[in-house]
């Protein structure tokens, strides 16, 4: 039986950004996920939902060396940081719809800073990729490959510094789940930072149930709660074709659903991102429907 979140108030915040990625289209992800009946279905679960609309990307901006579209990515994250902070101050759960994964620099920074006086947060990052590059290790310059590193204090710091003196999340409370497409320099940085990584091979050998038990233990031990950042490219493309960075042989739809269900059962979820849904590449909104279902399961929807 799921343990429904005690906080029954949610703010849905869309982020129309795809400039952190190489392929365009994920900026329309928030619209597609809403179209998949997300908000009415959350209300059926007993939540009071405020739809805060979407943060839009500035039309123009400059890049920096090895950080493409730097100005626009950071401007969006600045807005998101303040939106999420306001949501938390209002006593509500922030649910952020992407958009590419660069947005997590703003959402996670806001959550970690808000809870700074109470303790550390934990992070479960379900993704085919590590997102642990910085401007020196990146092979592409795409900033959606940097946010996890940034929020943990491994750079680029300017990606998460909005004048608030960032509160970096210690890697001992962070875990990467189901990764199977790491850059070589990125993997070396993760090992140096002593990042907790439970890759797809662990899912294959141990099963998603055991992997998520360990992930929840890591992120939930001695923390005020868990931020779940879920990238749909962790799911094998047969089930989730609508994403800009698909990687073959990912987790199945059922494994993804189980992971979300177990986060709900932990009773520790305090915030969530669902990112990288690309309607242009999708099949009849299939991936957005899955994204909506994942969100609902993470927030306590029960099969029986």
Automatic annotation (TrEMBL):
Keywords for this protein: Arginine metabolism, Hydrolase, Manganese, Metal-binding
Binding positions for Mn(2+) per the UniProt entry: 101, 127, 129, 131, 231, 233
Pathway assigned to this chain's UniProt record: Nitrogen metabolism; urea cycle; L-ornithine and urea from L-arginine: step 1/1
Cofactor note: Binds 2 manganese ions per subunit.
MF-aspect GO terms: arginase activity; manganese ion binding
Keyword Hydrolase set for record: yes
Alphabetized InterPro entries for the sequence: Arginase, Ureohydrolase, Ureohydrolase_dom_sf, Ureohydrolase_Mn_BS
GO cellular component: cytoplasm
Keyword NAD annotated: no
The protein's Enzyme Commission number: 3.5.3.1
Cofactors: Mn(2+)
Gene3D superfamilies per the UniProt record, alphabetical: Ureohydrolase domain (3.40.800.10)
Superkingdom classification of source: Bacteria
Any GO BP annotation: urea cycle
Catalyzed chemical reaction(s): L-arginine + H2O = urea + L-ornithine
Family membership noted in the UniProt record: Belongs to the arginase family.
Protein name in UniProt: Arginase
């Amino acid at each position: 039986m799921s343990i429904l979140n005690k906080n029954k108030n949610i703010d849905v915040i869309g982020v129309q950004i795809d400039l952190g990625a190489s392929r365009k289209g994920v900026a329309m992800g928030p619209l597609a996920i809403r179209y998949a009946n997300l908000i009415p279905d959350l209300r059926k679960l007993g939540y009071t939902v405020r739809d805060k609309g979407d943060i839009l990307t500035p039309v123009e901006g400059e890049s920096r060396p090895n950080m493409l579209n730097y100005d626009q990515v950071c401007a969006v994250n600045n807005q998101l940081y303040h939106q999420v902070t306001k949501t938390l101050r209002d006593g509500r759960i922030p649910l952020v719809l992407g958009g590419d994964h660069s947005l997590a620099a703003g959402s996670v920074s806001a959550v970690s800073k808000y809870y700074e006086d109470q303790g550390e947060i934990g992070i479960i990052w379900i993704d085919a990729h590590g997102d642990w590059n910085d401007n020196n290790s990146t092979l592409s310059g795409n900033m959606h490959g940097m946010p996890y590193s940034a929020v943990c204090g491994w750079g680029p710091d300017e990606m998460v510094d909005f004048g608030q003196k960032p509160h970096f999340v210690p890697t001992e409370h962070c875990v990467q789940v189901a990764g199977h497409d790491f850059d070589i320099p990125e993997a070396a940085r993760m090992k140096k930072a002593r990042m907790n990584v439970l890759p797809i091979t662990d899912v294959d050998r141990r099963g998603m149930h055991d992997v998520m038990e360990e992930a929840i233990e890591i992120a939930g031990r001695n923390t005020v709660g868990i931020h779940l950042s879920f990238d749909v490219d962790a799911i094998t493309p047969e089930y989730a074709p609508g994403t800009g960075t698909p990687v073959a042989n990912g987790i199945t739809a059922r494994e993804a659903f189980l992971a979300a269900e177990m986060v709900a059962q932990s009773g520790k979820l305090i915030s969530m991102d669902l990112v990288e849904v690309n309607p242009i590449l999708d099949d009849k909104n299939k991936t957005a429907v899955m994204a909506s279902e994942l969100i609902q399961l993470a927030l306590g929807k029960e099969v029986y």
